[in-house]
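Dig into these lines:

——
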Amino acid sequence: MTGKKIQRARTKTVATVGPASNSPEQLNQLIQCGVDVFRINTAHGTADEHDQIFHAIRAASEQQGRPVAILVDLAGPKIRLGSLFTETVDCPVGRQFRFVRNEVRAADELTCSYDRLIDELSVDNQVMLADGSVTMVVESVTQDQATCRVISGGAIRSRQGVNLPGVALSLSAVTEKDKERARWAASVGADFVSQSFVRNAEEIIALKSMLTESGSDAAVIAKIEKREALEALEPIVEAADGVMVARGDLGVEIDVAETPVAQKRIIRVCQRLCKPVIVATQMLESMHDSRRPTRAEASDVANAILDGADACMLSGETAIGQYPVDAVNMMQRIMAATERMLEERPELSTTDVLDDVHIITSAVVNGAGKIAEDVNARLVVVATRSGATARVKSKQHSLIPTIGVSASEATLRRMCLYWGITPLRGAPVMDPPSLRNFIASWGKEHDVVQAKDRVVFVTGTGLVAGANNLLVVHEIR
């Protein structure tokens, strides 16, 4: 770690790996540019490809000498169109189409990957195709087909997505493929596993149990992309270890005009419950094939940060785009520029007492943030066993540089998703005096601190004998 690296954006960058970014050279370059978490999207690619990418990321992290986390994204029960009668089918307003059970025999017949679709559709239900570019309304349903009429036209292709806003489906939240990929994620030691199309807290609890039974303590990220999830938002956030605002499908499942408000609400709940939240989908969409984003995209990233997002995610921009490195660099630039506005806040954020965090931990961390500002500390160091202390500290969104140290490599990687926390390897966390000396030596070497600078040390539960937590203000000699 160099002195420059601690000055990177405090908001974390999640980048999706794909054909444009899966080489060792690209992975190393993306880490250098500021990627904190790599996402493996299991909806695409083979099991062997996922495995190769996973180990390539771990190797690149070692080469760069700093922790980088891996998020395995389970595809979930995404409904897709089957094969169409022709490569593309035009859907003009007013035209009728029929969902049928067997293979299509005409251009106006459609099939999909969910074999109970016809059974569960009702008259007046909306069917949205191709990420909402085509909308149909159901006019009649029989045992063998559902007849729909186009009310918003466009063109569709085979295997494009099908969304059914407001339709209660009996789909399982975790498919057999998801279970297989979750077990694989557990076996290789993934840091985060995200569940798609979450509808309730019980689905998150079930995935956690599956991972635990497979010997994994991976953090579970709930992807909020259905109206049912918004209706059960607080229990879902409480059950999950983090949340992703998956705006692509969410913007189809609900009115697109409601999506920005939903994003703000989700972030606000995550802030209150002290859970990291990722804002995802189309953040720098135009950088698929352009070296510069639109002004609206730059504003979108900035507003997510000002809302309180812990991380912003790049999807196709880094997976299949022409300029993955430029996209990460641009994301970092927007983040850094936006974070300077946080200096204008009237006061530091504090966290409430939480069910999954010891009351003393919350009190000490809140106190540490205030003390660090009062003594004009140059640095805050959080020593943590599980990462809970660092998670609480991150939600203050303090502009004082904060280092997270732990004896656990898994905890260091988990802190890669925590706003403003820079994980640092090799610190003697079990011995507070040695830790202070280590930080003083490291800080001077990397021009982070100098003599007479003050450093606030916060030690989490279980690291100091006879104490729940420890708070020390240390002056560098």
Summary: The chain has three domains: 5-76+173-341, 88-163, 359-475. The longest strand covers residues 134-141. Confidence is low (pLDDT under 50) at residues 1-5. The first helix runs from residue 24 to 33.
